[in-house]
Write a structure and sequence with these properties.
This protein is mainly α. It is about 80% helix and about 0% strand.
Length: about 180
């Protein structure tokens, strides 16, 4: 049986992973909508939100929603046009989201959070155009700063503050995706 420190560390990793998914998901939703596959993204988002709500409110995770979201990730990745400008970003982003869903839905190793962060940076590095986001010239710079700041937000403000911060940062991703339209 895990001790309380292991449980706390696991919850922190899952919270940080969900925050990463919420941020990057800001662009993924806009891209899915532009490609006409937003219905599948709703299921993916439901899984992320179920994880974050369970962590924020200390409630039982709805594993069925998470399992469905994992399935929707695969479906969505297959439906997204390979010729779209942001196809490489979308593929890496969906892979990262699936990793997050697997982490929150199962007992995964602590190393999973590091892989999720790396995959989010890979996705950001695949962004097809420069961005103008309040001092950041690229999504890689922005995502790296977000990942670093997220730890402090979680440590000093808790999961609820982390969720709010991730929502604000998702808007930067959304604006970047809207600029592609």
């Amino acid at each position: 049986m895990p001790d309380s420190q292991e449980t706390t560390e696991g919850s922190a990793s899952k919270s940080l992973a969900c925050a990463t998914a919420i941020r990057v998901g800001g662009a993924l939703y806009i891209l899915a909508e532009a490609a006409g596959v937003e219905d599948a993204y709703y299921g993916v988002d439901a899984g992320i939100q179920a994880g974050m709500i369970a962590l924020t409110r200390r409630r039982e995770l709805d594993y069925d929603v998470v399992r469905t979201a994992i399935h929707d990730c695969s479906s969505l990745s297959a439906q997204y046009p390979e010729t779209a400008d942001a196809a490489a970003f979308f593929g890496a982003g969906m892979s990262m989201i699936e990793m997050v869903l697997e982490l929150i839905g199962e007992n995964c190793s602590e190393g999973s959070l590091q892989r999720i962060g790396e995959k989010a940076l890979e996705a950001a590095g695949n962004w097809p155009i420069a961005i103008d986001a309040e001092g950041w010239g690229s999504l890689v710079e922005f995502e790296a700063d977000c990942q670093n700041a997220a730890v402090d937000v979680l440590n000093y403000g808790g999961t609820r503050a982390l969720r709010e911060e991730a929502g604000k940062h998702a808007l930067v991703y959304r604006r970047a995706a809207q600029a592609l339209r």
